[in-house]
Amino acid sequence: MIILTNKSKDRLRQGLNLFFAITQFIVPQFSKLTGIGRSISDMGSSNAPEMPMGYAFSIWFLIFALALYYSVFQARPSQRKNPLFRKIGFLTAGTFSVSSVWMLCAQILGDGWHLVALILVMQGFALAAFLETLKFSLESKTEKFIIMPMTALFAGWLTLAVFLNATSTITALTGGTLGLSHTVYAMFTLLPASAAALYVIIKSRGNGWYAGAVLWGLIAVLLNDIDQTPSVVVGSVVATLIVVVLCTLIFTRSHYRLAVSPH
């Protein structure tokens, strides 16, 4: 049985974060570099009843860029004993590693329940890292504008992606919408995803980064519905969800500010 010292754990944590933050940029090119499988962009994302417009996925570049900066910063010897990094380090490493495995499996194996299982694990790591980060008093610019956005955006986007991935897989495997209308099937994706997002927004005391990722996704879903498969009912529901998320964010932030005010 191998027992790691604190110093060894710190170095392992730093190394894992740096390695897997880099692989997140490389793995998406696996199919193009090797000729094996198909690229993620060609996976037939239209399988899902409601998908965001293509531009929305550019958020991944921002998330990966923040993750890379964080991984390099936390790998510095001076940051080895940083309490925040010691608390979230293995969680972020878990997020990055599962993210890389998900992208690799998506290219080689295509749609399937393996992707749903992986994205659920990824969301578990990302959400835990985000909630742990909220417990710290973030003082440096790196903590405020790199680490918090990274964990929050990762968790926020995955909140929608978990449900979209699940329904996309069901559609791909069954070849349909389980006998349900497009509208009803879409609701099975959007309503639970939004409910989960609202819960986290309230629990995070109205974190703007997390809510921003959710709103970014919902707005892209609305625009795609209008452009590709216009449905008055679905469009109205998505628009309502956007308003509800925005109002919840504003109310929660206002309520928290009043709660902590000395007056």
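Second entry:
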Amino acid sequence: MPFLPLLERKRDGGPLTAEEIAGVVAAFTAGRIPDSQMAAFLMAVLFRGLSTAETRALTLAMRDSGDVLRWPDDGRPVVDKHSTGGVGDKISLPLVPLLARLGFRVPMISGRGLGITGGTLDKLEAIPGFTTRLPADRLQRQVADLGAAMAGQTDRLVPADRRLYALRDATGTVPSIPLITASILSKKLAEGLDALVLDVKHGRAAFMPHAARAAELARGMVALGNACGVRTVAFLSAMDAPLGRAAGNWLEVVEAEEILAGRGPADVRALVLEGAARLLSAAGRAADLAAGRAAAAAELDSGRPREHWRRLIAAQDGDVAAYERRLAAPPAAPCVHELPATEDGVVQDVDARLVGEVVRDLGAGRFRQEDAVHPFVGVDALRAPGESVRRGEALVRIHAADEAAAQRAADRLRAAFPLAAAAPPRPPLVTEVPADAGPL
């Protein structure tokens, strides 16, 4: 059937059948629908929405546009985690080896950063020699042997999403909840998962600033994931302040190493344990979330996930000796600059959006998918909300390509750290998804 009548029907708010949606995805992936027409279709979806049935059909058609991984039953559930992204969100790096040690298989397919959101692949590629380009057969062998792999999307895994995401980004149609749902879940369903945990962010630096909108997205993804045969659970987490003390690719790897060593920022550790606990509970391996958190904490503190992390690095061509040397070396950015407080006080807030924009502009992020990133620039030693600081003490440490860039970053970052005599109470980091069914 010609595409134009389908486009016009969706423009006018009419429904599409599963067969029609599958045909559209197949034709677009094969290059038979031009970008101009698909852009108009995406805009129609943004304004008119998709029903639950249409969203399910789109998700499955995108999943089936390429390979779908299959796994033998060896007693280890196949699981993954997805975060909707944020500033300083390095949770996947320590979580994956922890999950492998807890008896799961984790075929994590990750993405690159865009805008102020850092990408897991960019962080991994700051490790000497680490490759994220794994063909499906190599990824499956590694997961079978090691329990985990962390790789990028390939031309054979959900190719429809690769093309659609690039077009959504270029046409301002990213915020559609049905399109977000289909994009996320099509990739995860293609991994052949038994269980999936979703960390859905809300706050000033989140994809969904408002908690109600984040909850709507979470409910839709949970319902659809479960309807497609994957045990799917979700929680909401705050993204008003950066996660942890560091933002920037290598700097976040260093912080992930701290978590694996039993140290590191409390908020990063809490989200690592939350993701593990939710999957332990979903897989029936913990009586409740409290038991799951305790089991995950005991394993994390044993040091075994840290050893497993090095095995994962080596399996993906990383140079473990060079990695260790880089961890022990001084900061690798050409210029390191501290931003001092101009008065005594308590940090009222840390503006994650402003911090993320500065980190992006230092070169750690990108405006377009094809932009290169600098592995060593960013910020660390970030003061957290509620911390006291004395005049002259550092609010943040800036890692830049040159002195001019460091000074520009410092001038902008001062506004991110308002000081006062006392700090207001902080909202909880993690909250549950409200039970209200809500619209998709």
